[in-house]
Design brief:
- The structure holds two protein chains of two kinds.
- Chain A has helices at residues 2-24, 28-66, 71-90, 104-135, 141-156, 159-168, 176-211.
- Chain A is mostly helical.
- Chain A is extended, with a radius of gyration of 27 Å.
- Chain B folds into two domains: 2-30 and 250-275; 41-241, 3-Layer(aba) Sandwich (Rossmann fold).
- Helices cover 51% and strands 12% of the residues of chain B.
- Chain B has helices at 2-9, 13-29, 41-52, 70-86, 101-114, 133-141, 185-196, 209-217, 227-237, 243-275, and strands spanning 58-64, 90-95, 123-128, 174-179, 200-204, 224-226.
- In chain B, α5 (101-114) links the parallel β2 (90-95) and β3 (123-128).
- Chain B is elongated and about 80 Å long.
- Chain B starts with a helix and ends with a helix.
- The chains are: A mainly alpha, B alpha/beta.
- Chains A and B meet through α2, α4, α5, α6 and α7 of A and α2, α5, α6, α8 and α10 of B.
């Protein structure tokens, strides 16, 4: 009970309070403390990678063992990870060698990861167009304001729109760039700042709850 | 007529996809070279800061993105590095993303070669370090405890001439983050610039522009290069049009296609609702 519940709470409280105080006490001891904690943090992050990898392997091994639907993809996952790891270790994670030639790791990065991620992201363009045609419907006053802002931003963000605006809308007292700057700097920034303040306050409240042992979900279990 | 409008609203998505392919591919084969790009203050902020730095100042560039965001962030990173090398600034590169080292290495090596810069003397590549905010916090007090060796040669950092006078983030004349998510610009502001007090500029993807804008008003960022449009502005500023300027035609037509389809769908809806009932 002590090791499972009380000790983690005590460690969390001490480290939380010290780290909080460190921010406001800029002296040699506090900087030393920050440096040590930062290195611990980095080491723990590195181990988290290994933990993630182990968890991924366990999950996919289970899929293959039970031959669940799509278990063949799990084999690809193992193949990909093993190949990537082997090439990374052999090439010492360098893309090119001392002579400037591409390494096996560089080849995987440039000709496998690069096009795969690029393709996945590029698909978004198609879905955005399809979704905007089907879902962007002006059915209320608020939707109309959103529509108007979207039209101005889409129109003015590109040279062609700026050109058309300057040709046909020059009678207006402001340019399209000014309109966009206004939308981005005032309504958009105000809304975003509100969200950011809300998130920050929530994070502060949650952090205090964790430091003082009120929130214990991170320990696992029901309490 | 009603039948036609109904069909139009339920247009097969494959037709829409074909339209997208056309508007993106067409300007790649036949560039339209559309004029009219206006330089914004946000982009000028990064440009002017670099322009104001004296020769041999050391800047840090963090490439916090992966191949998925390459089309948006790669051109601006190349443009900024070209500007820095042209100004004879010393550049140190790094990344906080596990999938970022390949791109970071490529950009810094390519631009350095263009200006015949020497590795270790004019530029250096720290590589990747796991930890996100912890890396920034650690670099704020002692860089050598976070990156003991460079990523290309594996030599201790203190052996490189470019590291002379560099101990922590405060020693950099300017820090620029090209960020596509987390860890990224927010992390550099909260755990770096705000805490340790150094000048920070940034480049972001289009979807991240709105969330990053508040930092410009509060001057937590000296400037912001948003997406490919920002990159094309930067290319114009350094008088070296490249990939971003070329890509603006495709983006322009793409935007117009979305605009046209949204307006079309809403006009059809209004006609259906008020004229055909």
């Amino acid at each position: 009970m002590i090791f499972k519940k009380k000790l983690p709470l005590i460690v969390c409280f001490i480290v939380g309070i010290l780290t909080l105080l460190q921010y406001y006490v800029p002296n040699k001891v506090s900087i030393g403390y920050l440096e040590t904690m930062t290195q611990w943090d980095i080491i723990i992050s590195a181990f988290a990678f290994l933990l993630g990898l182990a968890s991924l392997f366990a999950m996919h091994y289970d899929k293959i063992r039970r031959k669940t639907q799509g278990w063949g993809y799990s084999l690809f996952m193992f193949g990909g990870v093993i190949l990537g790891l082997t090439c990374g270790i052999i090439s010492k994670a360098n893309q090119t060698n001392q002579e400037g030639f591409i390494t096996a790791f560089g080849w995987i990065y440039n000709y496998v990861l690069n096009p795969l991620q690029g393709t996945m992201f590029a698909l978004l363009a198609f879905y955005v167009v399809s979704a905007s045609f089907r879902a962007f419907r002006v059915k209320s006053g608020q939707a109309f304001i959103l529509f108007l802002a979207a039209v101005i931003i889409l129109f003015g963000r590109v040279p062609l729109g700026q050109l058309i605006w300057s040709k046909f809308m020059s009678w207006l007292p402001f340019g399209i760039s000014e309109a966009i700057e206004w939308i981005m700097n005032f309504p958009s920034t105000a809304a975003r700042r509100g969200i950011m303040i809300g998130i920050a306050l929530g994070a502060v409240a949650m952090s205090l709850k964790i430091i003082f042992g009120i929130e214990k979900q991170y320990l696992g279990g029901k309490e | 007529m009603k039948n036609f409008f109904d069909k139009l609203l339920k247009l097969d998505r494959r037709i829409l996809f074909l339209l997208v392919v056309f508007v993106i591919v067409f300007p790649i084969f036949k560039p339209l070279k559309l004029p009219g790009i206006k330089i914004t203050d946000a982009v000028k902020g990064v440009y002017n800061t670099i322009e104001s730095l004296p020769e041999n100042s050391v800047i840090l560039v963090s490439f916090d993105f992966d191949p998925a965001s390459k089309p948006e962030l790669y051109p601006m990173a190349v443009a900024v590095l070209r500007h820095a090398f042209k100004k004879n600034l010393k550049v140190i590169g790094m990344t906080l993303w596990a999938t970022g080292p390949g791109i970071a290495d490529e950009i810094i090596t390519m631009t350095a070669r263009e200006y015949k810069k020497e590795y270790g003397k004019d530029y250096l590549y720290f590589g990747y370090q796991v930890g996100g905010y912890a890396v920034i916090t650690g670099m704020g007090t002692d860089i050598y405890k976070i990156f003991s060796k460079d990523a290309k040669k594996g030599s201790p950092l203190e052996t490189f001439p470019v590291m002379q006078g560099i101990k922590s983030l405060k020693n950099f004349a300017y820090v620029i983050d090209f960020g596509a998510g987390d860890p990224g610009i927010d992390t550099w502001i909260a755990y770096g610039a705000d805490k340790f007090g150094f000048k920070l500029g940034a480049g972001c993807t289009a979807v991240n522009e709105a969330p990053t804008r508040p930092y410009l008003q509060t001057k937590q960022l000296t400037g912001l290069i948003p997406a490919m449009k920002g990159a094309s502005e930067y290319e114009i500023l350094i008088k070296a049009p490249d990939k971003a300027s070329a890509g603006m035609d495709a983006i322009g037509l793409g935007h117009f296609l979305i605009l046209f389809l949204v307006i079309l769908a809403n006009v059809v809806l209004i006609v259906q609702k008020y004229l055909l009932t």
